[in-house]
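Good morning C.,

I know you're traveling, so I'll keep this short. The sequence:
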Amino acid sequence: MTNPDPATPDFLMLGTCDYPEHVPSDRWAPYARQQAELGLRFVRVAEFAWSRLEPRPGEFDWAWLDDAIAAYAAEGLRVVMCTPTPTPPAWLIRAHPEILAFDDQGRVREFGSRRHYDFASPVFREHSRRITRAVAERYGAHPAVVGWQTDNEFGCHGTSRSYGGASEAAFPGWLQARYGTLEALNEAWGNVFWSMEYTDWAQVKSPALTVTEPNPSHVLDYHRFASDLIASFQAEQVELLRELSPGRFVTHNFMIFESGFDHYDVARGLDFATWDNYPTGMLEFFAPPGVGEDLKTHYARTGHPDLVAFNHDVYRSLMLGKDGLGRDGAGTPNGFWVMEQQCGQVNWAPYNPLPAGGAVALWTAQAWAHGADVVSYFRWRAATMAQEVMHSGLLRHDETPDRGFAEVAGLDLTQFPVGPVPARVALLHDYESLWIFDQQRHAAGLSYWAQTVTYYMALRSLGVDVQITHPDVDLSGYAAVVAPAITLVPADRAARWEAAARGGVPFVFGPRTAFRTPGGAMWPDGQFGPLSGLTGARLLQYDSLRPGMTQGVTGAFGNVDASLWAESYRVTGAQTLATYAGGPLDGQSAVIRHGHATVIGAHSLDLIRGVLREVLGGAGVPLLDLPEGVRVSRRADRTLVQNWHPHAVTWGGLELGPVSSVVLGGDWTPTEGKGVQGEGVDGE
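The tokens, ready to paste straight into the viewer:
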């Protein structure tokens, strides 16, 4: 295996997540030697080790971790140290049960797994700072420690919000700081509806266990409040790590499609983002409506390429537009990391198939192509105890190399140079829109993620590299902007978009764009509120379609059937490009355009793809017609062509083996007249 010099990260680098506390101490040195021989350069440790680091209050045991780090250092491995706060030990919880969080059914979430704390708990905040300081004082200047991971997977297992205890007690104060007066709060939430008006701040509780649906504005603000708690919790740790471990990077490992907090806010102050990539489990939980059971079965051993790619692009783009970012960690890569990369079967999905041969290598190559500078495999050796015994590692339980180990050993990293991803198309993503969209979906099968990912899948099927970014960043430099589900559009955001459109940037909007005010209500003059001038239209009707119902659409993009959602418009200056055919919306506008703004009212992958093809082609964005399961990504003047099918494919003049990829020059284009050949989706 070819490896770059670790001091000059010109190519993709690899790592692993290791748990020396899980194995006898005589395994540490042999493991470190084997990791270095495999070509790994980073080892993440100690995120769940609080009970071993501090077995009793104030009594620290550093010797075991000192020795483990020494073993890694002896082999030239660089250590990513963690703050161990995701697993407060039993002695702390039993002494202070008020640390525990409440679920949305009013039940205490007990000790016995992980992430058992309330971000608002002042007692836990104190102990978080104390253990962070202790670990940072011990290892902050250690020559083998090159960076830090804060905590672990914020929000995992539905832990981003507590609906009682310390969080519920702190919520009224947060509201008072935001609104100033109860009159302003009642007005913003529309509390006159159903006689929900408050006359004292102490009357406000969490939006849980209401008789029927809670006020969506109440829910939206509780989500904002909980997100702010996570951001401030992390900021406390980051401040200590900057003080006590200068010159080291600080990151956090975010999660697959995590919705519980605003990642842009929580990422502020980090050097870069990392995330945990488990493609097969992701497919089971997050496939959008268009990916039915047949496609889930087809991709069961690889995951769906666009779901994985979407998360890569989210976390690559997470730092855009943020102020005050540092960049510590000399000799370490600048791009995002995959901190935990699946390298075998997982244990937490409804079904957990063994990945296909070639999947680990394909996932690694795809991560690089979307901007990852480091891929770190979870985990080194499969756990022999507790909740994760069914989860794989690079080594099996008996320490023999597993299938993923062989694929990592076969990688030639010199074909993966670091460098920019040449994305010219922005896809806008906003957590506040996510929260209010999903609180009142109105169509059970259509979520914010489902709608957003459908647009992303259409872009990827056209061979387009995508920059996923916050809707308030500068958009003037993009060839086109796609906003699939930004339902919450304040007036200042609308003004920025209008300015970019006047500058010639084309926008494509999806259903429910600008449906909500910042407080979560409907605009008094209806959708599109402050975007009405840009879109040249008003909402006319919306129709939630149950499974089996469709709504025809006809016009400039052919004849298609929409499912799940259809909304029509009363044009006030816009041009109608497609209309509904049949049903209660018959003849009404389905796709409209006004200047540089195009709005798609119907949920249909074929319609979305047709509109994007026309808009992007007009903007000069090079397009490809990619078949299902074949994807193209570009980075650092290289092109990665991927085949996610379990069978060989011929496309664009290339012979692609099952579950494989090939790296080509950045100027590569598919051979004219060469379409896809091979078995269909159901072929094995």
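Safe travels,
E.
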